[in-house]
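Propose amino acids for all 156 sites.
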């Protein structure tokens, strides 16, 4: 099962990167845009400043929802099975992507995107922890999360 998740998250990441740099008709601009005031963009979307519901869904809900699968990285990398390491890694990675968008002129480097994406990853992480805790679908066994304990019991 870990192998399938690794394949899924790799393909998912590549598709997401494509969408962030080339999707939705994005073309390179000679001018890069950067928004570094926390909650500024989020506030605009909630203030009703002539923003369509489609834009709201794409920018707020989308920035949260599409990054939630990254909260499950603890399935592949044992040290990401804890909130601090996965959050620090994710913030560094998403910040690098936002900066690349700025320098490439293919999108806006926005601190609020980093915040929303990290919120999405965190929701995914806590969902992963909950699903693991209740052992939905015997997930602990299928993903080897109790592998050591199972191996010790089997050897006895």
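Proposal:
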């Amino acid at each position: 099962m870990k192998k399938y998740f690794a394949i899924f998250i790799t393909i998912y990441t590549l598709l997401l990167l494509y969408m962030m740099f080339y999707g939705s008709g994005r073309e390179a601009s000679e001018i890069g845009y950067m928004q570094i005031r926390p909650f500024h963009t989020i506030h605009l979307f909630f203030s009703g400043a002539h923003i369509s519901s489609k834009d709201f869904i794409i920018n707020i809900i989308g920035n949260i929802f599409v990054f939630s699968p990254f909260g499950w990285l603890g399935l592949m990398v044992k040290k990401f099975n804890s909130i601090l390491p996965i959050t620090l890694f994710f913030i560094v990675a998403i910040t690098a992507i936002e900066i690349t968008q700025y320098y490439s002129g293919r999108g806006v480097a926005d601190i609020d995107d980093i915040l929303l994406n990290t919120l999405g990853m965190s929701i995914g992480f806590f969902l992963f922890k909950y699903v693991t805790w209740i052992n939905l679908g015997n997930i602990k066994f299928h993903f080897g999360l109790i592998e050591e304990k199972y191996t010790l019991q089997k050897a006895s």
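The chain has a mean pLDDT of 88. The CA atoms of residues 33 and 108 lie 5 Å apart.
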